[in-house]
Specification:
2 domains; Glutathione S-transferase Yfyf (Class Pi), Chain A, domain 2
């Protein structure tokens, strides 16, 4: 039975799971969820995920949500024992976990806290929140100093998580990555070295841009 993924292509967390699946050469049964139409509240979906969030993975009679938990699960179950995406060495794995937690707890929330109220709620730009986002990008730029990838010299789950976020930030145009040369260099590298990047991430970025354009058009009417 194929693994089923309930997802929204424009969502950065959903694109992380798509990137991980591509890196592991896992075929997914893709089930789009229209959040704007409220499909996440359908009774059938709530049975799978009472938090009604995407992405949600279904593996037989097992369901799991939260993108980074899904990513670890996929590598643990479907990757080989020494898969470099999530290394077994305790210290190497700890660095990957730290970068994943940084994305989950700092970078993505700071982006969302600044940008989403503007595009979805019509709020005015908050310069203090923008500075917090820029600070997070400085942190990432520092993490990358002397490293090829986010957690060392090999592509890991940390890169796939962070690139889903950074590509989303880049798509909005709210900051220039030129201000963060290590981030810019790393971003270009991951775009060419992450397996299936165009289909797994760029296609969703294009959908995200189209959504932003539609919201912008409405505000300009």
């Amino acid at each position: 039975m194929a693994l089923a993924l309930y997802y929204t292509a424009g969502s950065a967390p959903c694109r992380l799971v798509l990137l991980v699946a591509a890196a592991l050469n896992i075929q997914l049964d893709l089930n789009p969820v229209n959040l704007r139409a409220g499909e996440q509240f359908n009774p059938e979906f709530l049975k799978l995920n009472p938090q009604h969030t995407v992405p949600t993975l279904v593996d037989g009679d097992f369901s799991l949500w939260e993108s980074r938990a899904i990513s670890r699960y996929l590598v643990s179950k479907y990757g080989d024992e020494n898969n470099s995406l999530y290394p077994s060495d305790p210290q190497a794995r700890a660095v990957v976990d730290q970068r994943l937690d940084f994305d989950l707890g700092t970078l993505y929330p700071r982006f969302g806290g600044y940008f989403y109220p503007q595009i979805f709620g019509g709020a005015k730009a908050d310069e203090a929140l923008l500075k917090k986002l820029e600070e997070a990008l400085v942190f990432l730029n520092t993490f990358l100093e002397g490293n090829t990838y986010a957690a060392g010299d090999k592509l890991t789950l940390a890169d796939l998580s962070l690139v889903a976020t950074v590509s989303t930030i880049d798509a909005t145009g709210i900051v220039s990555l030129d201000k963060y040369p290590n981030v810019q260099k790393w971003f270009e590298l991951v775009k060419t070295s992450a397996p299936g990047y165009d289909k797994a991430n760029q296609a969703g970025i294009d959908e995200f841009k189209a959504l932003l354009a539609s919201f912008k058009a409405k505000t300009e009417l």
